[in-house]
UniProtKB/TrEMBL annotation:
Gene3D superfamilies assigned: paralog of FGE (formylglycine-generating enzyme)
Pfam family membership, one: FGE-sulfatase
Protein name: Formylglycine-generating enzyme, required for sulfatase activity, contains SUMF1/FGE domain
Region (Disordered): 1-44, 293-324
């Protein structure tokens, strides 16, 4: 698989009938692999034909800019995020223990002085009323014992949620599953290309209308975040796969429901265009004093994140940095996550869009982050 920024004139788009207004399909410029190479590599995987597309957006958050033309080769992608039942099969077959379940010093990510000592994960709690949106501790809590098997902490269970996306998985947990299943995690450009479903330049994965004909198209927060749920079919946590329509490539829950890991290391925009958000807090921001000027590992400086108390779609801070050490080079690693989640709101974090992106500490786990895998043809 190659992903490359196109040079020259690229390929002109073609308007085709049957497309939601606001998007255009791009031609497949890389061709399809030979039939023997296109044998379906696993159950519930869909073929995403290669092509060029306009990646990013100039209309929303700074980290999505600039729009650029990117070319992606064809690949297979999981039809839906990996579910609780699928992850359970992996754990039973391998005995794997997730990051959120590990004691520090027992294979859990280093940086103990910056992270809670007790195994656990981040859990969302709705507030009783309006709160200061500049401080994510108002609705996020680090819950000891929370993990993929106990999504709300001790006493909770995923029973009845077997077909929901698995959550509370760190990057290495997702990567371990992908390796075991003979797959990989998608790159950011692969993920965004697939999420657009052939609709080039559309706001959402289904077009430009948030709720065409009054139909809710994804599991996202409706109402006043983080305290009041309202609107079309309110949901207060993850939803089972298949509840909402597929996109143009046949992918389910590609936006909303859960954020999804990609293999790309996060690259911040220029300092004067740094975005603000509290979509994906890091454990350190909940375990100690909140430092809005703390730098993201590797990619940012302290000046990149400004202190502030704005609310609305420009509110918050994108990630208060924790010290997480990469096992190979001793540097902290922040990855790109895509797609938004059931906690994304138009009044606070309008990131249930293909172009949206957020940084996430590779060792952070939370109740709204999952993943899906890809396979590249031989």
């Amino acid at each position: 698989m190659t992903t490359r920024t196109a040079t020259g004139s690229g390929v002109a788009p073609e308007d085709q009938p049957g497309i939601q207004p606001g998007g255009r399909r791009r031609r497949n410029t890389t061709g399809r692999p030979r039939s023997r190479d296109r044998a379906r590599p696993g159950r519930r995987m869909v073929w995403v034909p290669g092509g060029t597309f306009a990646m990013g957006s100039d209309d929303f958050y700074p980290e999505e800019r600039p729009v650029r033309t990117v070319e992606v080769d064809g690949f297979w992608m999981d039809e839906h995020p990996v579910t609780v039942s699928e992850y359970r099969r992996f754990v039973r077959a391998t005995g794997y223990v997730t990051v959120a379940e590990r004691e520090l010093g027992a294979g859990r990510s280093p940086g103990a002085e910056y992270r809670p000592a007790t195994p656990g994960s981040l859990v969302f709690h709705p507030t009783p009323g309006p709160v200061d949106l500049s401080d994510c501790r108002n609705w996020w809590s680090y819950v000891p014992g929370a993990c993929w098997l106990r999504p709300e902490g001790p006493g909770s269970s995923p029973h009845g949620r077997e077909r929901h996306p698995v959550t509370h998985v760190a990057y290495e947990d997702a990567e371990a599953y992908a390796t075991w299943s003979g797959k990989q995690l998608p790159t950011e450009s692969e993920w965004e290309y697939a999420a657009r479903g052939g609709l080039d330049g559309a706001v959402y994965a289904w077009g430009n209308d948030f709720s065409p004909h009054g139909r809710l198209m994804a599991n996202v927060w409706q109402g006043d975040f983080p305290w009041r749920h309202a609107g079309l079919g309110p949901l207060e946590r993850t939803s089972p796969i298949g509840r909402f329509p597929v996109n143009g490539y046949g992918l389910l829950d590609i936006t909303g429901n859960v954020w999804e890991w990609t293999s790309d290391v996060y690259r911040a925009p220029e300092p004067d265009r740094a975005a603000s958000a509290v979509c994906v807090p890091l454990a350190v921001s909940l375990a100690g004093p909140l430092d809005r000027r703390a730098p993201l590992p590797r990619q940012r400086t302290a000046a990149d994140t400004e202190a502030g108390t704005e609310t609305g779609t420009e509110a918050g801070t994108d990630a208060e940095a924790a010290t997480v050490t990469d096992a190979e080079d001793g540097n902290r690693v922040v990855r790109v996550i895509k797609g938004g989640s059931y906690l994304c709101s138009a009044t606070f974090c309008l990131r249930y869009r293909p172009a949206a992106r957020q940084p996430s500490d590779s060792a952070t786990t939370a109740c709204h982050v999952g993943f899906r895998c890809v396979v590249h043809p031989r």
